Amino acid sequence: MRIVCPICGERDRREFYYQGAALPRPADDAGTEAWHDYVHLRDNQPGPLKELWYHEMGCGSWIVVERNTATHEILGTQLAEVGLEGEAQ
To answer: Domain 2-82 carries which CATH code?
Structure first.
């Protein structure tokens, strides 16, 4: 699998460290149930999913990778600092 780093270009996935699904975090003052859902519950449906990857063997950037979990096709990448909805954070 090849991942396009927005800074370094296309690289082998072995340069990256997979962190998990890129989900919006609950507010700091959210209740226990919201944090439990965020940490432990996933739909786990096949298809497009936004994931966090760290470019460990490259530039050190956190990248949001949209990947089809059924086919492993990479649908797009962006720096994680841009955020999950395309807004700067």
So the answer is: 3.30.2270.10
